[in-house]
């Protein structure tokens, strides 16, 4: 045990390539939007983090065997790391999401919640901001496409509609009509039949 410890202390600091014997034991787990490869105690650094862009965060980068290990894990049906949200850029995009033009890094627009800032050679920072707005626009479109219920409809056991339900738009329309009626009463006098 002491010898093992000494060996660890004097071992070089640069990353060691895992031997073939370690290959099958390497455990891959999903950590946020990346993969963590655990090569076990015999390999240092023991833990490697492989991004979805197929590069390891260790000094070996895309040449790290951990990248191959992750590919093997995915081919064997391993759980995939979730994609980044549309308004998060872990790296400067290859192509502008708005016009597909060339993008350059733009550090003033680096944000923790949105990743690296960039500008587009055709649209500048305007295309960055347009890309940031896309998820909001999509969410709004999705909301507009389906009714937003204040009181959801009641459906009977045989699929018959027992109660039609009330949507946000119904409430808004009713409120507008009530307002219009009140205005008319004020102008023309109260008439319960109008
Ligand atoms: Zn690595
Ligand atoms: Zn652009």
Main β-sheet description? 3 strands, antiparallel
Radius of gyration over all CA atoms, rounded: 29 Å
**Number of structurally distinct domains:** 3
| Percentage beta strand | 15-25%
**SS field, number of helical segments:** 5
Strand-pairing-aware structural class: alpha+beta
- The N- to C-terminal Cα distance equals 95 Å
Share of helix, binned:
25-40%
Number of strands: 9
Order of strands, main sheet, comes to: 1-2-3
Q: Spans of 5+ residues with little confidence (pLDDT < 50)?
A: 1-15
The averaged pLDDT comes out at 81
Each distinct ligand:
zinc ion
Describe the structure.
The protein starts with a helix and ends in a 6-residue tail after the last helix. By secondary structure, the protein is an alpha+beta fold. It folds into three domains: 24-75, no CATH class; 85-146, no CATH class; 147-189. It is built from five helices and nine strands, in the order ααβββαββαββββα. It is 35% helix and 15% strand. Residues 96, 98-99, 101, 120, 122-123, 127 line the site of one zinc ion.
Task: Describe the structure in brief.
With about 190 residues, the chain is α+β, with helices and mostly antiparallel strands. It has helices at about 1-10, 20-25, 65-75, 125-145, 170-190, and strands at about 25-30, 35-40, 45-50, 105, 120, 150, 155, 160-165, 165. It has 3 domains: about 25-75, no CATH class; about 85-145, no CATH class; about 145-190.
């Amino acid at each position: 045990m002491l010898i093992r410890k000494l060996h660890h202390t004097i071992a070089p600091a640069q990353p060691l390539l895992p031997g073939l014997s370690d290959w099958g034991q390497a455990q891959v787990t999903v950590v946020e939007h990346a993969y963590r490869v655990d090569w076990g105690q015999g390999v240092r650094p023991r833990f490697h983090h492989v991004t979805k862009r197929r590069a390891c965060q260790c000094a070996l980068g895309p040449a790290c065997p951990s990248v191959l290990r992750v590919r093997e894990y995915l081919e064997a049906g391993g759980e995939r790391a979730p994609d980044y949200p549309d308004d998060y850029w872990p790296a400067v995009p290859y192509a502008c999401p708005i016009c597909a033009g060339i993008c350059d890094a733009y550090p003033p627009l680096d944000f923790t919640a949105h990743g690296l800032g960039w500008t587009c050679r055709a649209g500048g920072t305007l295309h960055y901001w347009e890309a940031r707005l896309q998820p909001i626009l999509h969410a709004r479109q999705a909301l507009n496409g389906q009714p937003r219920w204040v009181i959801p409809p009641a459906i009977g056991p045989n699929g018959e509609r027992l109660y039609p339900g009330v949507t946000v738009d119904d409430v808004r329309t009713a409120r507008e009509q009530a307002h219009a009626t009140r205005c008319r009463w004020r102008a023309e006098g109260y008439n319960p039949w109008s």
